[in-house]
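queue> holo job accepted (methionine sulfoxide)
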Amino acid sequence: MIDVDRDHLLVAIRSAVAASPNAKAAMRQTVQLLKDAMPHYTWVGIYLIDGDELVLGPFLGKPSPHTRIPLGRGICGAAATEKATIIVDDVHADPRYLACSIETKSEIVVPIMNGPEVLGEIDIDSDRPAAFGASDRALLEQVAPLLAEALTDS
Ligand code: SME
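queue> job finished
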């Protein structure tokens, strides 16, 4: 268990999103706060739905070759299609996995929903195996609705 005050981080993200002038700024701030606070979050990004593809928006970490992902592909595509969070403890054991960096060992993808509609998703990779647990899921599933609000407000 990594010792991070997730409640404090959530409050900081909520304030930053509320103070952001637009959705892009809200997404950028969120990515920055998550990346800075969580040492095991090696790559943090937000994908947004564009037709039947996910398009990479703000991110921090190494540039990804996957700037557009069809909904039927990858762990990202699966999370958007299933409209549910996916945690993969060992990406190399998951046939859906689209490699972004050879150092990546585990991944969490959390859909950003507006009611039944998927707007996008939060995608986080870790260089540590099985880095994501129930507390990461709980945190990110509280962050996603804040982003949904920012994306539907503007
Ligand atoms: N691993 C993702 C692709 C995106 S990169 O991790 C940034 C997937 O399997 O969908």
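queue> The mean pLDDT is 95.
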